[in-house]
Amino acid sequence: MKRLIAMGVLLALVLVGVGVSQAQTTRIVVYSALPDLETTMVNREFTKRTGISVEALSVAAAGTIAARIRAEKDKPRADIFVGGSRDFHIPLAREGLLLAYKSPAFAEARVSPAYFDPNGFWYGWYLGALAIIVNTDRWDREMAPRRVPKPATWDDFLRPEFKGHFIMPSPITTGGGYIFAAVQIFRLGEDRAWAYLRALNANASQYTPTAPGTITLLARGEGIVGMQWAHEGIGARLAALQPLETIVPPDTGFEVGAVSIIKGGPNSEGAKAYVDFLASRTPQDINAKFGYRYPVRADVPVPMGATKFEDLKFVKYDLAWAIDNMARIRERWTREIGR
Amino acid sequence: MGWHWRAFDAPGHPGLAVSEPVAVIRWGEVRRHAGDPGVALAFAGAAVMLGLFVLYPAFRVLVYPTLQDYLEIPRSLRWMQAARNSMVMMVISTLTATLSGLIFAFAVTRPDVPGRRFFRNIAVLPIFAPPFMVAFAYILMFGRQGLITKTVLGLDANIFGWHGLWLVQTVAFFPLAMIIIIGVLEGINPSMEHAARNLGADEWAVVRTVSLALARPGIAGAALVVAISVLADFGNAVVIAGGFPLLATEAWFRMEGLADLKGAALVVAMLIVPTVCLFLLERYWVSRRVYTTVTGRGSRVERPPTHPVLKWSTFLFCGLMSVMIGLVYFGVVAGSLTAVWGRDWTVSLAHWRLAMDRIPTLWASVKIGAMAGVITGVVGVAVAFLTSRRLPLRHVLDFLAVLPGALPGVFIGVGFVLAFNRPPIELVGTPWILALALAFWHLPMGYQAAVATLKQVERSIEEAATNLGASGLRVLWDIYVPLLRRAFLGAFTVSFIRSVTNVSIVVFLVTPGNIVATFAILNMIGNGIWGGAAALTTMLLLITFASVGMAQAVVGRTMRSTPMG
Fold this sequence. Notes:
The structure holds two protein chains of two kinds.
Chain A: H1 2-20, E1 27-32, H2 36-50, E2 53-58, H3 62-71, E3 80-85, H4 86-94, E4 98-99, H5 104-108, E5 122-135, H6 136-143, E6 166-169, H7 175-188, H8 190-203, E7 204-208, H9 211-219, E8 225-229, H10 230-238, E9 244-247, E10 254-262, H11 268-278, H12 281-291, E11 294-295, H13 319-324, H14 326-336
Parallel strand pairs in A: 1-2, 1-3, 6-7, 6-8
Antiparallel strand pairs in A: 3-10, 4-10, 5-8, 5-9, 5-10, 5-11
Chain B: H1 6-9, H2 27-35, H3 37-62, H4 67-71, H5 77-109, H6 116-123, H7 125-128, H8 133-142, H9 147-152, H10 162-186, H11 190-198, H12 203-232, H13 235-240, H14 247-258, H15 261-286, H16 308-337, E1 338-340, E2 344-347, H17 350-356, H18 359-388, H19 394-402, H20 409-419, E3 421-422, E4 425-426, H21 431-441, H22 443-455, H23 459-467, H24 472-500, H25 506-509, H26 517-526, H27 530-561
Antiparallel strand pairs in B: 1-2, 3-4
Helix pairs in contact in B: 3-18, 3-20, 5-6, 5-10, 5-12, 5-16, 8-16, 10-12, 11-12, 12-15, 14-15, 16-27, 17-27, 18-19, 18-21, 18-22, 18-24, 20-21, 22-24, 24-27, 26-27
């Protein structure tokens, strides 16, 4: 009997706990593809500025959030989708799941129109560049004594010394991996690009199915050289003290990290205030300081340890072509590379 | 480990060999029960619940892609590759896991194998671990920077890929096989072995022709259950499979990397075909052929001594496997206390400080785990009671209650969002969706545990009560409820542990107000914060052990006071 009573009390407590966590009106719900730290700090500033409280769910993968927004489309649960490349936001806009909003703040901040959608479906508020990442511990032990020069260009990945030591995110399951493959095509033309990718495959130890996986493995010394976003590599070194060096080669590719408003969410007005807020200095500064991502505002200092964005040399990247040919290139990758 | 493992001794998985003579419907009895409004109402209620929370979400996922999408599956090279790989892993991991489980079960059921109690307790430890933990710990141990491979042996080993996954799945799933096979071996009457020995068979012949021969269908059943788990294994594969495509993870990558919900649904549908086949095979073919459990555990005859060679070789094997399990726990705890794994071995509490920030997620885990446990317990026991009556359509109920065991977690997660995000039943955004999804996914375990307990109830007690004029509900209340407490607790415990450590469902259903610990851990691994992830995992393990210990202590006491034992 005592146990039944105890069980009843426990159940009651659970129910009360559930009840309390509901309600409140001046708040927005944010799905964030940025890590917990940046998400929390940006949201705290937003609440301080506007008085609107934020309930956030930070998921390490933008694709999961986009899939979730699709699954919830009958009744959207969140107001904001923040973080993740625009490549995830654009299809959602096409499917009619996003709310168009002409943000006066982005216009005022003089953000380059290249970084946001003319119709106002998504706004880019940070940038990232693809880079070469080197595990310096293993490099110093295994490559330096053999006088192998540090890789500085994409072609350096093909050095025979790197056989079995190269890691990058899979072009089939990650956005970054795909951009890398597309960059090679824009850089070399399609035929030579495939020859390059096949040669690279001979050096590859593995293609990680998730993007952060590459950094984790390189940091843990499962590989010596790899390809990933520069901010991930720099962040791993400065924030997590991992033995990683980041080199941005010429002819690289970039991503535009975006924010968008989910159509039909519980508080669209609050969501608009959030988009405006991301155009301001504070959140971009937080993201640069703690996430090492480039701001889109010219008056926010670049992240520590990073070259100025204007000084990087980008390949001529045809976004429309890359999106239109995505299925075909991924299919060919599976056929010719096979992993 | 002071507590009892009762909860795990009871069959704990969809297919657990619960043998039952084919039902002979006695119409008089049917009419009597069906006419009982209480029982009829409960039956209808259970059927509606199972239809709503098991069939409906599954249906919503399967109809998400169009027929055209389904027809194009064979044209996707990557998916066919994933399907082939999944089949290969299923075969090899099932073989090794079942074999290990068999050897363990053999050792544990012999009274004269040294350390058998220890082996039995340590072997169930992987059941407490979150699904990614074995893989996570083995990377710390056997990876390129691994404590054993690099620091101790100085090797340059690459654990990522199918071979690493093979090792990890063997360790992660053999306990499942062991628990099932123990039940089977204990059901073998030792007098059979005595008889064989008296007829002049040597020890090896006794094991081969009596013990193993009698256990064969049970072992086949265990293998099928393991095979289902291997097919659906997401947590280990996602951490250690590297670039090796598999169906269970491919569904996830479709979603995570490409936001392709349709593709995810298609891959999951591909996974369901072999799983349901295995499941039906186990349920309606193998378990019908189990002859051992029918006789029960009644015999008191002493088991004969085991042949020394057999005794010591099994001892050696179990010792080795125990070390492998110990390494899982050691790896995680050590990882949480080491400054930088592989480079700076100084002891540091920095990771624990980081994990401290996530303590609210532990409470959310316990809260949702408890909700799921209660639901699984109540529904599992109720359905077990109903299917033990000779009611028409009870086989349908039985099938629905074990069906979730054949569905991958990612499938359930997506299904619940698609099914319950609009009126009349709107659950998305509340903790209930998570609790219900977890509860019904773990229902097969809870249900089977309850069925096993119910089988021990002397039928004659109930018949006596009925003859004295008690109604069906009265029988339930006066006779079964006291006995079912234990069944409830078994179901609650299993569901609680699996819910608290779940990843595959949580990852899609977690809501901003209810972030649970496993989700936080996976995020930390994803962001490269391995030390923090190890610390939070250690905390989660401590809380899980403490909760289960508490529950077992409470029940242990009441159980000793009941004559049922």
